[in-house]
Automatic annotation (TrEMBL):
Listed Pfam families: DUF29 (PF01724)
InterPro entries tied to this protein: DUF29
Name of this protein: Uncharacterized protein
Gene3D superfamilies linked to this entry: Uncharcterised protein PF01724
């Protein structure tokens, strides 16, 4: 059952989240173009960020951290940095 906090997502809020994600993707692509060697660090950094996001999701939703996947299953090139890809 969804909590009141989970149900309090407006269309504007979702638009803002999409806009933010697109901006972050563009910035990552620029940084990798400037310094291609940074790409090798993506898996390590992604894992650290994923764990932070799990903790944030637990706090924001009130759901146990075990609810959220322990690791990111998305491919860096085909999904994460692809501006047209969105998880289902």
């Amino acid at each position: 059952m969804a909590t009141a906090r989970q149900l309090d997502q407006s269309t504007t809020s979702l638009y803002e989240q999409d806009f933010f994600i697109q901006g972050q993707r563009r910035e990552l692509v620029r940084l990798i173009k400037q310094s291609p060697s940074l790409k090798a660090f993506i898996p390590e950094v992604l894992n650290e960020l994923w764990q932070d996001a799990r903790e944030d999701a637990e706090i924001e939703t009130g759901m146990p951290i075990q609810t959220f996947p322990k690791s990111c299953s998305w491919d860096t090139d085909e999904q994460i940095l692809n501006k047209t890809w969105w998880p289902e």
